[in-house]
Amino acid sequence: xxxxxxxxxxxxxxxxxxxxxxxxxxxxxxxxxxxLGSFQRRCSQVLGTEVKLAKGYKVCDLRxxxxxxxxxxxxxxxxxxxxDLDTFWGNLEAFLNPILKQDYDMxxxxxxxVGGPFCLYRNSxxxxxxxxxxxxxxxxxxxxxxxDFDEIGIKDIKYRGFEWTVRQLERQGKLTVYxxxxxxxxxxxxxxxxxxxxxxxxxxxxxEYPTDAQPFKFGTGFWQRRELPRLTDEFQxxxxxxxxxxxxxxxxxxxxxxxxxxxxxxxxxxxxxxxxYQFGFWWLRxxxxxxxxxxxxxxxxxxxxxxxxxxxxx
Length: 314
Known about the structure:
Layout: H1 2-5, E1 12-16, E2 29-33, H2 36-47, H3 66-69, E3 79-83, E4 87-89, H4 92-100, E5 106-108, E6 118-122, H5 125-128, H6 137-142, H7 162-171, E7 177-178, E8 184-186, H8 191-203, E9 221-224, E10 230-232, E11 241-243, E12 263-269, E13 272-277, H9 281-302, H10 304-309
Parallel strand pairs: 1-2, 5-7, 8-11
Antiparallel strand pairs: 3-6, 4-11, 5-6, 9-10, 9-12, 12-13
């Protein structure tokens, strides 16, 4: 969230039931504390249909309806959108401002389907109600299971998610969607997901998958704090954001990120986040943390007798 905070031209509203006292503070970061139960009741009331939210992840299915659910918070904005939590942000203005000037109804973070870690929607009555054109939305909202409705749609809705609705309207000339360059870099290969998207489009009998679509771009990200943040890959290609898919699952990485305002730069890859602090308290603390982690990793994973004694596996 701190990397987003440095993009002061964009506002982020965080709806959460977690403690926000230790989170970054900035004029463009707004925290709204809501319990999942009260949020579920709000969604049911606004949408006029029963909504079941057994877990927080189920909220992803409601993303296409955020324009209605958060109509009060979004009043006065030309566009609204959603992001994933496992993202780091570069210079958003450099990427989004030229695209916004082209007056698209929706802007996708990559060309394969809507939703994903980043997507923008025009804040209009027509766009905010598009999800109602999908015949599955009521059943999806009533189900406790996540159906990937905000993207291609899985399980019993069989690739008839929001992407199916959007592509139909695109073909009919009723919707303009930016599906251009991939705006982000990620830490692992996700070519299997492109295959799933191909299946979704084929089963929906819509326009063929673009033959010039490139695979997901993955690799090490290099983030630098300047007047505006800058995020590049090893070839100095700049991106709007980094999607941290695999590295966050590592046992000993990433480190807890503290003292964000003292961070000069960092790199991100499948092994975690590697921080570079300005010299001072946080620099010293981080160095000590790294030493402790290396010692623990050696004791647990590299000492054979200990692994066998406590039945520990790699």
